[in-house]
Amino acid sequence: MLARAIMAFGMFPISLGIAGETAAVDKPAPAFTLVDAHGKIRSLSHYRGKFVVLEWVNFDCPFVHKHYSSGNMPSLQAAYTSKGVVWLSICSSAPGKQGYFEGQELSDRIAREKAASTAYLIDKDGAVGKSYGAKSTPTMFVINPEGVVIYAGGIDDIPTTSVGDLSRARNFVRECLDAVLAGKEVRTRTSRAYGCSVKYMD
Fold it and tell me: pTM of the predicted model, to two decimals?
């Protein structure tokens, strides 16, 4: 049925969220299905049994640019996917808004940014972003193998666009993943997300 729906929309990305659910630490992560940059269907349920990172992304946001131009975000993606973590970058920018790309332009941009996530997902109607309460880019979530949110918030504790601040910032996502992969308690489970506003539809 889902495949037929995609054909009916002419292979344009779709998003299917679960109405009424809102992401929160210690609660089940809202289910979703999105199409990735290569046209492949990706559902959160496909990754049950693994740690999953959700990263709200907008490559044209200067706060996001800091983490990609410095190599910070790609290196995190590569380091943890190599340990079996699933990393899903989600763009909730609406068509025509900052950060929305499709087709070859999107493929070229992913390559230029040296992104190393498991998949880049297109949430053009913003349904998934809103179900997670994502208001800025980057906003980060970590989900445990049982499908429960164990971290929600910013990537670190220094809300600037300066690459120079990365070396002294506490990276909450790294701390969370290092802890859970070592079987330890997560020290910080929520923080204030910072960055550009997510460019939802009006």
Answer: 0.89
